[in-house]
């Protein structure tokens, strides 16, 4: 099977993607509920629901990266297991 990234990069990308998904989902929920700390300042966004939607979209993109890099890590594990010869 063909791999595009090294095993270390695949695992690192997976970890960063999980962290990004968690952070962006929480941030999106907070903007969607119009939490005062995020929406009532001088530099607040005009449309917090649009910001929430952008956070959720970015979380979906991170989910795609997680799926790709997770598959790459599994391919590396599968290839390493098949190369062991007794």
TrEMBL record:
Membrane topology summary: Multi-pass membrane protein
Superkingdom of origin: Eukaryota
TM region positions: 12-31, 51-75
A Pfam family reported for this protein in Swiss-Prot or TrEMBL: V-ATPase_su_f
One of the record's GO molecular function terms: RNA endonuclease activity
Record-level GO cellular component terms: membrane
Record localization: Membrane
Major localization class: membrane
Keyword tRNA-binding: no
First and last residue of the signal peptide: none
Keyword Membrane: yes
Keywords (A to Z) from UniProt: Membrane, Transmembrane, Transmembrane helix
Protein name according to UniProt: Uncharacterized protein
């Amino acid at each position: 099977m063909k791999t595009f990234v090294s095993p270390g990069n695949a695992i690192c990308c997976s970890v960063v993607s999980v962290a990004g998904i968690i952070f962006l989902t929480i941030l999106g929920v907070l903007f969607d509920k119009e939490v005062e700390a995020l929406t009532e300042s001088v530099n607040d966004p005009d449309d917090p629901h649009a910001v929430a939607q952008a956070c959720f979209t970015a979380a979906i993109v991170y989910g795609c990266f997680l799926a790709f890099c997770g598959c790459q890590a599994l391919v590396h594990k599968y290839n390493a297991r098949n190369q062991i010869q007794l």
